[in-house]
Each structure stands twice: as structure tokens, then as C-alpha cells.
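Aim 2, interim progress. The first record below pairs a target sequence with its C-alpha cells.
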Amino acid sequence: MRDLMKIVCCSFVFLAFLLDATAQTQDSYEYQSEFIWGINKNTYGGLIGGFVFKKSRKLNDRVLETYGLELMNVKHPQEIRKTSGTGNYYIYGKNNYLYALRLQYGRDLILFKKAPQQGVEVKAIFAVGPSIGIVAPYFVEYSSDGGGFTSYTAQYDPKNQDQILGTGRLFEGLGQSSIKMGANFKAALNFELGTVKDQVTGFEAGILFDAYTSKVVMMPEATENYSLYPTLFITLFYGNRR
């Protein structure tokens, strides 16, 4: 989390430098809509937190109306990978996954426009919307004979700790998921760095609050399980505009 906070802070320092460099930009080019997709890294995610999609259209010269979709794998902060007797990994104490599907409606405010094929376009991002939490059981592979020659998969149970061979198959147990409803709010700065007029390349950094109606029990024996997930994030994105 500290490393990501450093990245976000550096992004805002980078903004201050860019604002000075672009304040005198003239003859900015015009567009009416854009579509972007991106890869997200955040303080409640792993190496890749998830994926982001956003469609925008201009309401006026400085304001865009936006519709967003985020697909995230939310991790508990106390998750620790352990090695089984077979050398395979599993997450100690984890009972459930949380997959967050966030729908967002918002506004992008253009702070600084970009000149043709140079400079940076900077936007302030605000969005809010419902969150659909998919709580799926975390499956692990157990030895059924004590020697690892035959096995079965089931939801993690700390009572059978010594029989664990490793993590189950990806998305196994998704059909047994339950739904947890919530809401999210995002505030960020967006830096568009591309040099091609009809393409969008850059990054977005900011904070997001994801809140559910009750606690999501991902690790039953953990010190705390949460209903509110405030997270710092950075998203690298690519797209097109016209």
C-alpha cells in the first residue's frame, strides 16, 4: 500500500510540473466522445486489481458526461500465501473471494486542454454508482487419502489445514456465489499523454470508496472484515476519441 501511495503522490507532483508546462498551450484540438479501457492497480488488489471501461461524451467545451464499468478482484489486507506440503500455494484463512462489479455515472472536468500532437490534457474525475459484490467461495484442493494420490476440491476449512494440496481451479465455486449490494464513489485526476489526435493513452490516479450494506466475510478468523473499502488506485488506459 505504501508503494502505491508513493506512486499516487508522485502523480500529483507530476501534475504540478505539467500544469506549468501546458498553461500556455494554444489551439487545442476538439473531440466529442471517447472510449477508454484500462488496467487497474489499487491498495485492495493484487498485482493487477482489475479492469476499467469508460464511455464519455462532451456536454460542453469543458465538461464530459461519463458512463463507467469496473471489474475488480478485492482482496482482504491480511491475506498471506502459504505453501502446502506439495509446494503449491494457497491463501491461509481465506474463505471467500469478493469480485466487485462497479457501475459509474459521472463528470470529467477538463482542467487543461492538449494542443495537437503535444502537451497533456488534464481532467478532474468524479463518478458515483452502484456496486455489485459477488461473494464466491474460495476453493482449495484437499488430499482424500492422506498421501496426495487422490484429491477433491471444497471451500477452505481451517479444520482440514493439514490436508490442503493447493488452491482450486480459477473461478471454481463461482456458481455458488451470493450477491452483496453497495455503492461507490470515485475522485481522481486523469492525464492523457498520447500524441495521436484520435487515440487516448495515459493514466488516472485517485481515491475510490466502495461500501456494502454489511460486512463481506472473506476471512472468518481475521481481526476484522469490512463493509467499506477506501482505496488508492492508479489506472493505465488506452482508447480512442472522435
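The second target in this work package is listed in the same format:
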Amino acid sequence: MWRGVGFIRQAKLMLVRFVRMRGLPEEIAKGVALGIFIGMTPTFGFQMAIAIFFAYLLRKNRLAAVLGVWVTNPVTAPVIYAIEYEIGRILLDVKRVHLPADFTWEAYANLGWDIMYPLWVGGLITGVVLGTLSYFITLRIVPFVKNWRVPRWPRRHWHKKNTRRD
């Protein structure tokens, strides 16, 4: 389906799908906010399943929640998690974690807790802040975008017909 289609066209198709999403602006905004909140938590790999579950449970827009989760993707996740770790570390007033000198199971088990606790605190705080912010931004943007007409791009003709004039 995507073969031979440029990156710009793919982005435009995703925009058109988002624009044509069904639901009231408030429902879509709540779904996006839920997705971004879950996307900020350190549950990488399970975020879409968690977003669908909670969107179903809370009766929010599931597609909007899944789209919101993609705020953390393989490109942005390292930066986002590093920022969240630093926020949590500063708020909890703990020292930055360094790799242990001895390679024992206990040393790495403690290292995991020393990283995950500040990461969860920072993730929950940034999730609440960015989820709330995204709710209000999406609530304002959705009515504008739904009325926006996206012009069609000219399609390439991959097979030229035999147009011989006699």
C-alpha cells in the first residue's frame, strides 16, 4: 500500500484520517489527552494496549488515544524518558544513578528501582501537564481542522496506456 508513496504523502494521509475521525471535539480531545498521558509513562511497548484498554474502560475515543500514545516513539522516547528521569530525580532530591562497580544481581536490581522510581514520578507529572495541555489544544484545533479542506494531490500514473494515434 505504501510502496512508491513519498513521506509527505504519508503524512498527509495520516492528517486526513485524523481530520475525518468521528466524534465530538471534546471526545477526541479527551482521547488524545488520555493517550498522551499514557505515552508519558514508562510503559514502552505496552502503551497502545494500555491506551485502548483505558479508552474502552473510560469510554473515550480509542483511535485518538492510540494517536496520542505515539508522542513517544522510538525516535522521541530516549529524549522524553531522560527529561522525565531528571524531573523525577530533582523532585525526589535523589542523586543521579551511575553504573555499579560490581556486576551482581542485587546491584542491578537496586539500579532498576533507582531509575524507575524517578522515571515514574517524572512521567506522571509530565503526563498530567502535557495531557491537560493537549486536551485544551486539541479541543481548539479539532473544529478548525474538521472544516479544513485538504486538496487532493495529483496521482502519478504508474502504467502508461498505449495511446497510439492512427
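The mean pLDDT is 82. This observation will shape the mutagenesis plan for the next reporting period.
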